[in-house]
Hints:
9 strands, 288 residues, five-stranded mixed β-sheet, single chain, disordered N terminus, 2 domains, Immunoglobulin-like
Amino acid sequence: MTDNGPERSPDGQAVGLRARWAIVLSSLAIIAVAVLTVVVLNNDDEPSGTAPGPSPTVTQPGPTVTVTATPEPTSSRTPTTSPDHRTFRYQPLWPFTSESAATAWQQAYRSGGKQPWHLDPAQTALSFTNGFLGFDEIGLVVAKSVRGDEAFVSVGYRADKNPPSVAAVIHLARLGPGDDAPWEVVGTRDSSLTLTQPRYGAVAGSPLTVGGRITGVDEAIRVDVRQASTGARLGTFCCVAAGGEGQPWSAQVTFQGATDPAVVIVASTGGHYQGVEAFAVTAIRTAD
């Protein structure tokens, strides 16, 4: 009897086949891991998880520019204002009737230096009060405020040994271009005696209703109509009896002979210490 070794059943054969397939699969897995390791090592310079694409375009930044304010030029003499052109926002009253008239004075002044008082707002205010209006009892500059192209000059008088009294605060503005633009009277800043009618710069003719408010005792308000080119009175009304605390007053005045583009309306009162103790002015444009 021949011995052929142990007998194998069908179940035994299946177990053997599975064992062989396990060995084969394990070998394949080892080979795959080795290949993958080599690939990774050979491509270690590529970013993980992205496919290499075209190289991006890089824009280089330009130079940094720092913007600074241009410093103002310095000089030994700094003028209050020196614009090449000024916008005049008021109605010219006196001494010039237009910017062209002011420019003509500038040219004459540059040639011969005549009438330098046009460059001083205080002297211009006094010349307006004494020379043009004829209020020669009012000869003091009580206060002055200048800001840029505008000035407010308080003119007044001294009664007996009392402190100076303010008769009016005259508003002036520079008319024309340049450092040597002259000062122009454009009105008054009113307090105890106000002149609100007619409206400043309005177009009006004769007869003219004039009015405002007054604070005082036993006042007599006189109204004059004048023009800068002649200085003569074109019309007068005298007088309105008034008084109290902020009481309204009004009068009607007729005038004729106006040739300037605008005329000056003047209201004045006084009589306690001197003939004129307070005044106010405004301007209208003539209807013709």
